[in-house]
Amino acid sequence: MTNLWTRCNNCQKILYKQDILDNQHVCPACNFHFRLSALERLGMLFDEGKYTRLDEGIFPVDVLRFEDSQKYSQRLQENQKKTELTEAVVNARGKIGGIEAIVSAMEFAFLGGSMGSVVGEKVTRAIERACVERLPVLIISCSGGARMQEGALSLMQLMKTSAALARLGQERLPFISILTDPTTGGVTASYAMLGDLNIAEPNALIGFAGPRVIEQTIKEKLPKGFQQSEFLLKHGMLDDVVGRKNLRAYIIKALRLLLNRY
Amino acid sequence: MKKEEDFYKLEKDILLLKKQIDDLDVSEEPGKKEKIAGLRAQIEKEWAGVVPHLTATQIVQIARHPQRPYTLDYLTNLVEDFTELHGDRRFADDPAIVAGLGFYKGKTAAFIGHQKGRSTRERIERNFGQPNPEGYRKALRVMKLAEKFGFPVITLIDTPGAYPGIGAEERGQAEAIANNLKEIATLRVPVVNVIIGEGGSGGALAIGVGDVVMMLEYAFYSVISPEGCAAILWKDQSAVAKAAENLKIRAKDLLELGIIDKIIPEPPGGAHIDYGQTFKSVDKHISQALKKLEQKPVDDLLKERYQKFRKMGVFSEK
Fold first, then answer.
1. Chosen CATH of A36-258 out of 3.40.50.1970, 3.40.50.880, 3.40.50.2300, 3.90.226.10
2. What's the pTM value of the predicted model, to 2 decimals?
C-alpha cells in the first residue's frame, strides 16, 4: 500500500498519489510542477489526448564508440528499454483546440533529454514538415543540453534545428516554444529560445550554463530563484510563465491569435 | 617520445632548432640558406615522428598554448586598415569578441573573432576569451552590417566557451547564441569560419557557422571541454585524457564526421612555433574559400549553407 502515497520534493508534504495525478502532476499543496514524460505531455496537449506519432523509425548510433563508466551503446539500450521510446524526443501531429499542429515533446528520462543526432534530426523533420504542410510548430523542451556521447555531432544539431526554424520563420508559420523543468545548455541555446512565443512552466530551471558550473566559475552562492522561469520572465527572456492547469487553454488562445483565427 | 609526455616538453627540441634558424637568419654566415634549409628539414623530421603519437590532451595543450596566435595577430597581419567596431548597441562592448571591417585582398570584409588576452591583465580584461551575450550580439550586428553592404564575413574561433556567469544568464546567453545561429542561416553574404585554437561548444558555434568551416591542424572543437566532460561522466578530474579521446575533438576526426570542410596545416610543433608560416597558410585557405563563394549566386549559397548543416548527424533509419 505504500505506493499510494508520495512526498512532494518541494514542500515535503505527504500526498495521496491520486490527488497529484488528478491535478495534472502538480502538487495540490504548493503548486510544484512535477516532471512529465513526453507522452504525458502530448496526451495533455492534444484534443481528447489524440495524436499520431511521427518519425518513429529513426534510431541512435554510437558513432564515436564512446565509453565512460559504461558504453554509450549500452546506455542507449537501457534508456530505450526504460522509457519504451527510441530516443529523447517524440514527434506528433494532431489537433489542439481544433487547430492542426506539429509537436515535438522531449523526454527527460531518456539520457537527460539530451540532444544528439536523432533529437536534432527529428526536431528538424518536425519543422520541415510544418513548412511543407503549412502548420504551426510547438516544441516542448525538457533537456540537459547537447549529448556528450555524440561529441561535436550533437553540437551541430543546434545549428541544424535553428536553421530549420529560420525557414519556418520565412514561411511565416508560428513556432511556440514551451520550456519545462529543466531546459539548459544546447537546447536552450537553439530552438527553445527561438519561439515566436517562449512560454515556460512555473519553477522550471532554464539557462545556458548549469547552476553548479556557474557557482564553480564565479565562486559565489547563486541568488535565490536564479535561472527559474520567473527570473527569466523578469529579465525579458519569456513571453509568460503559465501553470500547467492553464497551459492548454493558453496554447489554444496563442495559436488562434498567431493564426488570426477568431 | 613517450605518449603521456607533456606537450611543453615535446616542443623544447623544436624551439631550440627554431632558435638556431632565427639566429642564422639575421647573421651574415656564409651558406646560411643551406644551413637553414637543413635545420628546417630536421624540424620536419622530428615533428613527423611526434605527430602520429600526439594524444588528444596534447592537442588541447597546443590549441591552448599561451604563445598561440590569437585573432588580433591574424587581423594585424592579414588585413589592411582593420577598424575595430565596438559594442552591441544594447548593453556593452564585450572585449572577448573583436569585430570590425578591413580590407582583405583589396576589398572590404567583416572580421569577427574571439580574443584571449596575452598578459595577465589583458586576459582578465578579455575574460579569457569567454564572451557574454553582448559579445555575440555585437558579432551579429557587424554581420548584419556586412550583409547590408555586401561584404563577406570571416570569423576566427578561439574560446573555452561562452561565459557561465550570473550576468550572462540574466542577459540571455542562450538566446544570444540561438539567435546568431538562426540569423547566420539566412545571412545573404559569404561566411567563412576558421577554428584557430579552442572551439569551445556553443560559445564557439555562435560565430562558428557559415559556408566553409575550416580548422587549424592542432586546434580542437568539442561539445564540452574535456574537463567538463570528465567531471560529469567520469566524476573524476583524472579522466580528462580519456574524455578528450572519447569526444573526438581533433581536426581529422571532425573532417571524417563531416563537421568541418578543411584542415589548415600548421608548421611543425604548432602555430606558435612559426607565426609567419601560420599566417601564410591561413591566408591562402581563406582567400581560396572566399574566391569560390563569391562566384555563387546568393540563393544558391543559402541553399547550400542550409544543406551543409542539414546533413550533419549520424543515425540509422528503418
1. 3.90.226.10
2. 0.96
